[in-house]
């Protein structure tokens, strides 16, 4: 009979590895991170471009370099990793976690606490229902990135990128570096999905055309992709007749959004937020099942990996506290409410047990000075602008919540000044 | 002669005929131009096993639908195929449509469809709470069912192969060989397949194939049907198969839960020239959505995972064309098979065997094959096994403890078994294991399946295709590609 696992972490990407470190530092004895891939690091393994860790390490690292630093720390902290191990079921009554691995077979684990760090996945083509054929040559940007960076194969020679999420922008540049042609990036919204710095460094620097309020309306080709029809859209995102044009290409890369990956969370029976697509959590990163915590892109899709790692450390530490019986069951549960221009935010509840950062995205860009704030009077900060592609945050101190007494909600918003 | 019988087409019709005829001592070849099965209309359809009330008494369709339904309920066990025995409802929104239900009820009784009855809209809503409040009545058909059509076609042809039938994929019939008024075989892109009997199960191409034999008595009107397929988590939204009443606006959109638990809606019925045009259209998808929302107002289209279209082999008469030609002798049509073709196929197959015995006895002799094995076992479906079965499977073969497709919980063991059973493309693995049919539509598993195919078949990764032909996934290695391009630029 093996030792009881105190904290079991599902997924060894940036959130999971940090959660392992956090849990061990908090005093949990037996901390295990499960990873379905053969190596640690999650999606950062294939992100071989620089730009990671500017905040955490004050230097520009590639994805694998960034992960390497955390993995070293985790090994030093005594975290156990099990690779090639997939969780395929979580029983909601008993919190039993079912795993499979070629050597170990099928196992049932009953840990003291669970941290969900499964990350997110890319929205597929079906989600946007583009008419036309179903040829080879259509990939999500991340799948193409895996082919190019991990396997060493090119998905095509002439690409169109639909959507302007960060992976799409990065892949546009990557395709150019590999000698392919990129016909353009097409974004249905009137603002970019990814970071401004990626627009500049990945598109502008290489002269890749970027078309806002334009989308793909038809896919041509039966065996291999032969081209796409693109069209401008009106304010209701309906294609405008007469603006259609054919763009020849053999590859269509999709960067049309990321969805937190919560199949296991749903099995576990925890509440999933309708807008974020991730578990509803409080500022301890505790889900609606008190023994299950969650961190990183499985909760809300972040722009920067630094935030994911930070959150992993916090969730791991709190999961350890829970496993050690140090989290009271009667913590406060003050709801956070987003104002009019807040599309999504996390955490959705504040306990006042800890200092917390609430992350949010605006629905519409505000291209003028504005103010991000948390009421009643917890936080206020001036911003030069607020854009959906770039997350904003408010910070709230535990002391502020305690001294505010009986408040029914915390309101967060961003408004022009 | 190489064979006794060549069957053109391995959709559900051709596969069912092949299996039925494998009960006799015959050398049978089945040829299909696709790289994986099912391909044509058998891949993209409503996967319905019809109750048998919809066909006009006296038609060929009516003759085969009810017997076909009964046979499928038996074949389910023999072939180890997933069938959801959920029944179907035809929904009426007004008096006119209710009258139509009464007509269908009469037809059902004449056709021998068991248990068909008309129920009130409220009774329907007790069973299916998400249907429209405006539905006033429904025709209930308890024997209707929904089949996993990917599994069914593969199961049927596998069973035929177990009993000696030879399957040739990527083999396109190009003409009929006739000698002195007698069929001599089929010419294909891979040479001649000689046999005294040729059975035309060519689906949407069956009209053209019949014309090779000089039979121009019917014409195929390729008719496109477009569909939405939703995430498996939406399955409980509707538990059965809902038909609309046909109206002036169209034949009627259906909403159903597939045998795998996905919500699905379709099809449109758009006549077109090109039998191979399976593209979805904005108009078609809009029509499906409108029809789906009429039946199920909160149809959760935001959970859509893919759209697709199939092309069915409509005929001008609207009926099946199943008969042996007097001349050239040896040519048999199982043509123009569309809805309820999937349902009817096992009954059509039995009829074809009788037809050969009665009308072509001078050409071919059907001697029973005592060694016929009716049983065929599916590739283990990890998703549906209980924990003990899963453990056993993984202990015997560790490949069953490695997930390849996370959406549908498909293991490496299943993918390897599909390859052992003949899968050569990404789509073949998908058809045989369901890897890639889930909510990420292959985003996660496609590179992994490609790697396994490459490794097992010992072919380079950039030779792997999505569905055969020119549908290669990749165009070459990264640096090679860059160097070649630079070299070419330097030349210029």
Average pLDDT number of chain A: 96
The proportion of strand residues of chain A reads: 25-35%
Largest sheet of chain B: 9 strands, mixed
User: How far apart, in Å, are the first and last alpha carbons of chain B?
Assistant: 57 Å
Q: Sketch the major β-sheet of chain A.
A: 5 strands, parallel
Q: What is the average of the pLDDT values of chain B?
A: 95
The tally of beta strands of chain A, per DSSP, is 29
Largest interface: A-B, 51 and 58 residues
The percent range for strand residues of chain B is 15-25%
Across the major sheet of chain A, the strand order is: 5-2-1-9-21
Task: Please provide a written account of the structure.
With 417 residues, chain A is of the alpha/beta class. Chain A contains nine helices and 29 strands. Chain A has a five-stranded parallel β-sheet with strand order 5-2-1-9-21, with helices on one face. Chain A has a five-stranded parallel β-sheet with strand order 11-19-13-14-15. In chain A, strands 24-22-29-26-27 form a five-stranded mixed β-sheet, with no helix packed on it. The N and C termini of chain A lie far apart (63 Å). With 492 residues, chain B is of the alpha+beta class. Chain B is built from 13 helices and 24 strands. Chain B is globular, with a radius of gyration of 23 Å. Chain B starts with a strand and ends with a helix. The chains are: A alpha/beta (417), B alpha+beta (492). The interface between A and B is large, with 51 and 58 residues.
Sequence-ordered SSE layout with sheet pairings:
The complex is a heterodimer of chains A (417) and B (492).
Chain A: E1 7-10, H1 14-25, E2 31-34, E3 50-52, H2 54-57, E4 61-62, H3 63-77, E5 80-82, E6 86-90, E7 97-101, E8 105-109, E9 113-116, E10 120-122, E11 138-140, H4 141-151, E12 153-154, E13 158-162, H5 166-177, E14 181-187, H6 196-203, E15 210-212, E16 214-220, E17 227-232, E18 245-248, E19 251-254, E20 258-260, H7 263-267, E21 292-294, H8 305-323, E22 334-338, E23 342-346, E24 349-350, E25 356-362, E26 370-375, E27 379-383, E28 392-396, H9 398-403, E29 410-416
Helix pairs in contact in A: 1-3, 1-8, 4-5, 5-6
Chain B: E1 5-8, H1 12-21, E2 28-31, E3 48-49, H2 60-79, E4 83-84, E5 88-92, H3 95-111, E6 117-120, H4 121-127, E7 137-141, E8 145-147, H5 149-162, E9 166-168, E10 173-179, E11 182-188, E12 191-194, E13 197-200, H6 206-212, E14 220-230, E15 241-244, E16 254-257, E17 263-266, E18 270-271, H7 282-295, E19 304-315, E20 321-324, E21 331-335, H8 341-359, H9 387-396, E22 403-405, E23 410-411, H10 412-420, H11 426-433, H12 445-457, E24 476-477, H13 478-491
Parallel strand pairs in B: 1-2, 1-13, 2-9, 5-15, 13-21
Antiparallel strand pairs in B: 3-8, 4-8, 5-7, 6-7, 10-11, 11-12, 14-17, 14-18, 14-19, 15-16, 16-17, 20-21, 22-23
């Amino acid at each position: 009979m093996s030792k009881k696992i105190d904290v079991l972490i599902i997924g060894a990407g940036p959130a999971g590895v940090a959660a392992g470190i956090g849990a061990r530092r908090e005093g949990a004895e037996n901390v295990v991170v499960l990873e379905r891939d053969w190596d640690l690091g999650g999606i950062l393994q294939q992100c071989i471009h620089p730009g990671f860790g500017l905040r955490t390490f004050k230097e520009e690292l590639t994805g694998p370099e960034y992960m390497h630093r955390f993995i070293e720390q985790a090994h030093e902290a005594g975290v156990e990793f099990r690779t090639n191990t997939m969780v395929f079921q979580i029983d909601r009554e008993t919190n039993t976690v079912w795993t499979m691995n070629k050597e170990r077979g099928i196992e049932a684990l009953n840990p003291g606490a669970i941290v969900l760090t499964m990350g997110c996945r890319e929205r597929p083509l079906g989600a946007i229902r583009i008419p036309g054929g179903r040829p080879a040559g259509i990939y999500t940007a991340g799948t193409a990135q895996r082919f190019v960076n991990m396997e060493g194969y090119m998905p095509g020679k002439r690409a169109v990128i639909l959507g302007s999420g960060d992976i799409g922008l990065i892949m546009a540049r990557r395709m150019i570096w590999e000698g392919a042609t990129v016909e353009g990036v097409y974004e249905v919204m009137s603002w970019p999905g990814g970071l401004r710095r990626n627009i500049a460094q990945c598109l502008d620097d290489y002269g890749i055309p970027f078309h806002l309020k334009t989308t793909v309306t038809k896919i041509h080709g039966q065996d291999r992709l032969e081209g796409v029809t693109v069209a401008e859209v009106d304010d209701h995102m309906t294609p405008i007749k007469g603006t259609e044009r054919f763009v020849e290409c053999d590859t269509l890369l999709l960067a049309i959004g990321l969805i937190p990956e919560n199949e296991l969370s749903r099995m576990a029976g925890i509440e999933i937020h309708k807008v974020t697509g991730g578990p509803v959590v409080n500022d301890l990163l505790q889900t609606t099942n008190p023994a299950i915590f969650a961190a990183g892109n499985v909760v809300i899709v972040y722009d920067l990996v630094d935030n994911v790692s930070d959150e992993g450390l916090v969730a791991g530490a709190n999961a350890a506290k829970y496993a050690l019986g140090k989290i009271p069951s009667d913590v406060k549960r003050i709801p956070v409410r987003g104002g009019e221009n807040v599309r999504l935010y996390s955490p959705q509840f504040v306990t006042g047990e800890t200092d917390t950062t609430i992350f949010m995205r605006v629905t519409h860009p505000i291209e003028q000075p504005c103010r991000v704030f948390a009421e009643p009077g917890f936080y206020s900060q001036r911003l030069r602008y607020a854009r959906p592609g770039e997350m904003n945050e408010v910070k709230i101190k535990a002391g502020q919540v305690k001294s505010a007494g009986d408040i029914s909600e915390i309101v967060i918003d961003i408004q022009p000044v | 002669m190489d064979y006794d019988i060549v069957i053109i087409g391995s959709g559900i019709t051709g596969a069912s005929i092949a299996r039925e005829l494998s009960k006799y001592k015959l050398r049978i070849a089945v040829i299909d131009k696709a790289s994986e099965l099912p391909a044509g209309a058998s891949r993209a359809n409503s996967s319905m096993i019809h109750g048998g009330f919809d066909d006009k008494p006296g038609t060929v369709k009516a003759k085969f639908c009810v017997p076909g339904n009964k046979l499928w309920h038996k074949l389910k066990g023999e072939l180890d195929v997933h069938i959801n025995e959920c029944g179907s409802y035809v929904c009426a929104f007004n008096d006119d449509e209710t009258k139509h239900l009464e007509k269908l009820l009469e037809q059902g009784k004449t056709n021998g469809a068991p248990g068909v009855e008309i129920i009130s809209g409220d009774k329907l809503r007790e069973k299916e709470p998400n249907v429209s409040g405006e539905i006033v009545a429904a025709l209930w058909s308890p024997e209707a069912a929904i089949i996993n059509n990917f599994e069914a076609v593969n199961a049927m042809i596998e069973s035929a192969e177990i009993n000696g039938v030879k399957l040739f994929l990527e083999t396109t019939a190009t003409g009929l060989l006739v000698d002195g008024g007698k069929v001599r075989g089929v010419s294909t892109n891979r040479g001649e397949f000689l046999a005294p009997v040729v059975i035309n199960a060519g689906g949407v191409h069956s009209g053209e194939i019949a014309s090779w034999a000089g039979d121009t008595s019917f014409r195929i009107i390729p008719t496109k049907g477009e569909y939405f397929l939703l995430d498996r988590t939406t399955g409980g939204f509707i538990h059965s198969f809902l038909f609309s009443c046909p109206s002036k606006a169209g034949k009627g959109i259906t909403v159903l839960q597939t045998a795998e638990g996905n919500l699905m809606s379709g099809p449109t019925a758009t006549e077109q020239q090109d039998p191979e045009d399976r593209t979805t259209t904005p108009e078609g998808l809009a029509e499906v959505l409108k029809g789906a929302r009429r039946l199920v107002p909160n149809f959760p289209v935001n959970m859509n995972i893919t759209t697709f279209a199939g092309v069915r082999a409509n005929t001008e008469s609207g009926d099946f064309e199943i008969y042996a030609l007097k001349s050239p002798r040896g040519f048999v049509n199982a043509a123009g098979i569309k809805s309820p073709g999937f349902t009817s196929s096992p009954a059509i197959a039995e009829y074809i065997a009788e037809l050969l015995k009665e009308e072509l006895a001078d050409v071919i002799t059907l001697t029973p094959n005592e060694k016929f094995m009716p049983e065929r076992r599916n590739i283990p479906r990890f998703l549906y096994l209980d924990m003990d079965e899963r453990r056993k499977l993984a202990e015997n073969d560790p490949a069953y403890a490695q997930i390849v497709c996370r959406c549908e919980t498909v293991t490496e063991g299943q993918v390897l078994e599909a390859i052992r059973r003949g899968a050569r493309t990404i789509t073949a693995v998908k058809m045989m294991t369901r890897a890639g049919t889930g909510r990420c539509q292959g985003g996660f598993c496609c590179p992994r399946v490609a790697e396994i195919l490459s490794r097992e078949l010992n072919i380079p990764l950039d030779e792997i295709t999505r569905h055969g032909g020119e549908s290669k996934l990749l165009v070459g290695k990264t640096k090679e590609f860059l160097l070649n391009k630079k070299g070419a630029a330097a030349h210029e």
